[in-house]
Amino acid sequence: MSESVRSTLERATMMLSAAGIEGAARDAQILLAYVLEVDQAALIAKLDEPLKQSALYGIDRVIAVRSLHQPVSHIIGKRSFWNHDFMVNSDVLDPRADTETLISAALEQPFDNVLDLGTGSGAIVISLLAESPNSMGVATDISPAALDMARRNAGRIGVADRLRFVEANWLSGVSGRFDLIVSNPPYISEAEMENLAPEVRDWEPHLALTPGGDGLEAYRIIAAGLGERLAPNGRAFFEIGYEQANDVCEIFTRAGFTQPKVLKDLEGRDRVVAI
């Protein structure tokens, strides 16, 4: 007898819970909708319908992979951020809702050109350009694989003709001045890496998570060269770890940027340093 959508969801939830997956019911629903190629509202409408054997094979496969703590976004190949779905894989950091604090702040004033340092999936700069149709952008990353993913996202979201990609280590190889500079650099300390959730520690690129040491090296490098790339009256925004505000502000203050501001995310945690 064929299994129904409802019973499959219940079974998948139990399997994920047994594997220690937080939000097991939510993930089971997302993954079954993915296998069936429907949205979650349509899935709920099908709860009492039987599943074909091919669908059962498909859900068993993705549940087995999720049970190994592979992120849902990697399984389905996308992650929602700001107003778009971004393609992601193990070559790039998943865009997080916390980073939308940076997007919101950057969009408070118009800009003609934007530089995104360590672009990863391209989520930040692509979101900004999509909201500012007359602006141009440059995105850098040290990883060719990350740049390839960012290019694909730029093409899908329709900003590729206004965005140039540069394989570079932060500001090296970048010329010109920009009236908006943004970055979500790796900021997790080496000591903190072991305590990360396995979905992050084991599946996301370590290069995008930590620079090693105290986690602050990227800010030191960026601060040292920022003055040469920031236009007069330009603005810069950098995501930070929620306990790093004082240290990061001190780094930029020592580099000559007076009175950096700290912006909080929706949870009330320090999240962005604004220059």
Notes on the protein architecture:
Strand 3 (113-117), helix 7 (123-131) and strand 4 form a beta-alpha-beta unit. The chain has 2 domains: 5-68; 79-274, Vaccinia Virus protein VP39 (Rossmann fold). Helix 1 (5-18) packs parallel to helix 4 and helix 2 (24-36) packs across helix 4. The chain is built from 12 helices and 9 strands. By secondary structure, it is of the alpha/beta class. The chain is elongated, with a radius of gyration of 21 Å. The strands form 2 sheets. The chain has a 7-stranded mixed sheet with strand order 5-4-3-6-7-9-8, sandwiched between helices. It has a two-stranded antiparallel sheet with strand order 1-2.
List the helices and strands and how they pair.
Layout: H1 5-18, H2 24-36, H3 40-45, H4 53-67, H5 72-76, E1 78-81, E2 84-87, H6 100-106, E3 113-117, H7 123-131, E4 136-141, H8 144-157, E5 163-167, E6 178-183, H9 198-201, H10 206-209, H11 217-229, E7 230-239, H12 245-254, E8 261-264, E9 270-274
Parallel strand pairs: 3-4, 3-6, 4-5, 6-7
Antiparallel strand pairs: 1-2, 7-9, 8-9
Helix pairs in contact: 1-2, 1-4, 2-4
Which key features would you list for this structure?
275 residues, alpha/beta, two-stranded antiparallel ribbon, elongated
Low-confidence stretches: none
Strand order of the largest sheet: 5-4-3-6-7-9-8
Sheet of most strands: 7 strands, mixed
Strand segment count: 9
| Overall average pLDDT | 95
Shape: elongated
Computed over alpha carbons, the radius of gyration is 21 Å
What series of H and E elements makes up the topology? HHHHHEEHEHEHEEHHHEHEE
CATH hierarchy, class of the largest domain: Alpha Beta
CATH architecture of the largest domain: 3-Layer(aba) Sandwich
Q: Give the CATH topology of the largest domain.
A: Rossmann fold
Per DSSP, the total helix count is: 12
